[in-house]
TrEMBL record:
The keyword Cell division does not apply. It catalyses: Hydrolysis of (1->6)-alpha-D-glucosidic linkages in some oligosaccharides produced from starch and glycogen by alpha-amylase, and in isomaltose. The keyword Hydrolase applies. Signal peptide: none annotated. It comes from Paenibacillus profundus. This is oligo-1,6-glucosidase. InterPro entries: GH, GH13_cat_dom, Glyco_hydro_b, Malt_amylase-like_C, O16G_dom_2.
């Protein structure tokens, strides 16, 4: 497989509003990112993915853009952005930005014009119909919102305040391509493309048999033509990296988006783990990895992530965030870095930050959660029961401020944070992690260094072992005669396990592990959440 810089990279996701606040307004800002770049460099990440920081009324934390070429005042100015980019490059790192072009804010001037009159030249920048169909959106009971001004409905895949652009309209596409060039000409290193497979809509918007399965929103005919045009007109003219956020995708469709010869995207995020596996499910996880490996290996490149700004933190969701917090954080870190695909680290993951549970719906901010709460309570359900049902997967779980030290608000802000800090910041914070050689932070750092030294972690083929095992996940990675064994106990029990006879650990080098190992001879016994990586050959 062709070797490229981005296949070898580790990405660190910066949710800037919760990263570091430098002016006391309670929001993290781009200046804060600049001040913490040496921290990210110390970890060893190669690429920073910055969540959207464009002009926005901020109903969906920046995913509702009203001005694509400006920076929202909470984040800073275009000038701060330019400095950030310069400082990232000065440290030998790269920066990718969020590209949110399935929808805009309803405050975008295009939409103001579009909704003003049926015969406005920009009417067709968005999608208007006389009658709604029965589809649900991500955040609301209908994808259609009635607009009094002209007596028609507009289409929105997310919130009412996020009308979908009409990608069928070539003028819309040209506007977006121009805007992309604006940022690329500044020298950014690529895009994380928000719900990019939603751009093409189903012709005629037929009613769905089951409106709760919203997969009708994505992967519709026309999507690959749009992406190939985007590639041809914009992407291929720059040395950049792209990752598409692609819900409802199968490996067969995946290769259509990221196939190396197709001229669309470089990599993708699929959501088989994060959207459909609420709790750890060993068999399911193994099956997902195997199916994606078999479907994509040798054809297109994948990504690995276990949480992000939309998904509960990994130790809380899949590991154990009390007794085995450190062990499970390191165990999942090992998994993330040794499976095939680019690893994504979400800020705070590298110190084992946990998901939060606030006491009241008023402590939450996320529009997805609040809309769902209103909808369910509106049906007459008990508010407390609804609230509790939403806690485990609430998107704000992972959005609480970065915990830098044990001072008030975890050192995130001198003001009042936009969302409460997780009360465990006195114990779990960057400063504590940096002064403990056994911390989760240094474990991540070591994994990243290993990747730099050993191409087998990137390009090695993947073979699962012990496929039926309920607690142990084991696999090898092999490249050019080199062979590594990864063995993980993803459970709270001590587990004795028998490797296939062909695999002997005798005298084999332990490359990394999260427990002190006394002897590699004889039976393999793994402590709760123990992770080991051996070089077999
Ligand atoms: O998320 C897309 C999206 O809604 C899912 O793929 C995601 O897994 C879901 O939130 C889980 O319930 C993107 C952004 O990451 C998100 O923050 C935005 O709200 C959304 O697009 C709309 O732009
Ligand atoms: Ca600020």
């Amino acid at each position: 497989m062709k070797r490229t810089w981005w296949k070898e990279a580790v990405v660190y996701q910066v949710y800037w509003r919760s990263f570091y606040d430098t002016n006391g307004d309670g929001y993290g800002d781009l200046e804060g990112v600049i001040q913490k770049l040496d921290y990210i460099r110390e970890l060893g990440a190669d690429v920073i993915w910055l969540n959207p920081c464009f002009g926005s009324p901020d109903v969906d934390n920046g995913y509702d853009i009203a001005d694509y070429r400006s920076v929202m005042p909470k984040a800073g100015t275009v000038d701060t952005f330019d400095r950030l980019l310069k400082e990232v490059h000065a440290r030998g790192m790269k920066l990718i930005m969020d590209l949110v072009v399935n929808h805009t804010s309803d405050q975008h001037p295009w939409f103001t014009e579009s909704r003003s009159a049926k015969d406005h030249p920009k009417r067709d920048y968005y999608i208007w119909r006389k009658e709604p169909n029965n589809w649900r959106s991500y955040f609301t009971p209908s994808t259609w919102e009635y607009d009094e001004a002209t007596g028609e409905y507009y289409f929105h895949s997310f919130a009412v305040q996020q009308p979908d652009l009409n990608w069928d309209n070539p003028r819309v596409r040209e506007e977006i391509y121009d805007m992309m060039r604006f940022w690329l000409e500044k020298g950014i290193d690529g895009f994380r493309m928000d719900v990019i497979n939603l751009l093409a809509k189903q012709a005629g918007f037929p009613d769905a048999a089951n409106p709760d399965d919203i997969s009708y929103l994505g992967n519709n005919p026309g999507i690959h033509e749009y992406l190939q045009e985007m590639h041809d007109k914009v992407l291929k003219h720059y040395d950049i990296f792209t990752v598409g956020e692609i819900p409802f995708v199968t490996p067969e469709d995946g290769v259509l988006y990221v196939g190396e010869e197709r001229g669309e995207l470089h990599t993708l995020f699929h959501f088989e783990v994060c959207d459909y596996m609420a709790h750890w499910d060993m068999q399911r996880f193994k099956e997902i990895q195997k199916r994606w490996y078999e479907g994509m290996w040798g054809k297109g490149w994948n990504s690995q992530f276990l949480n992000n700004h939309d998904h509960t933190r990994v130790v809380t969701r899949f590991g154990n965030d009390t007794t085995y917090r450190v062990e499970s954080a390191k165990c999942f870190a090992t998994l993330l870095h040794t499976l095939p695909g680019m690893p994504y680290i979400y800020q705070g993951e590298e110190i084992g930050m946990t998901g939060v549970r606030f006491d009241s719906i008023d402590d939450y901010n996320d529009i997805a959660m609040k809309n769902k709460y209103k909808e369910e309570v509106g049906k007459g359900r008990d508010p407390q029961e609804v609230f509790e049902s939403l806690l485990h997967l609430a998107r704000d779980n992972s959005r609480t401020p970065m915990q830098w030290d044990d001072s008030s608000n975890g050192g995130f802000t001198d003001g009042t944070p936009w969302i409460k800090v997780n009360p465990n910041y006195r114990d779990i914070n960057v400063s504590a992690a940096l002064s403990d050689p056994n911390s989760v932070f240094y474990y991540y750092k070591t994994l990243i260094q290993l990747r730099k030294q050993h191409p087998v972690m990137v390009y090695g083929s993947y073979e699962p072992l012990l496929e039926e095992h309920e607690q142990i996940y084991a696999y090898t990675r092999s490249l050019d005669g080199e062979k590594w064994l990864v063995v993980l106990n993803i459970s709270e029990q001590t587990v004795a396990c028998e490797l296939p006879a062909s695999v002997s650990l005798e005298g084999k080098e332990l490359l990394i592990g999260n427990y002190a190992v006394e002897s590699d001879a004889g039976e393999l016994r793994l402590e709760p959440y123990e992770a080991r990586v051996y070089r077999l050959a």
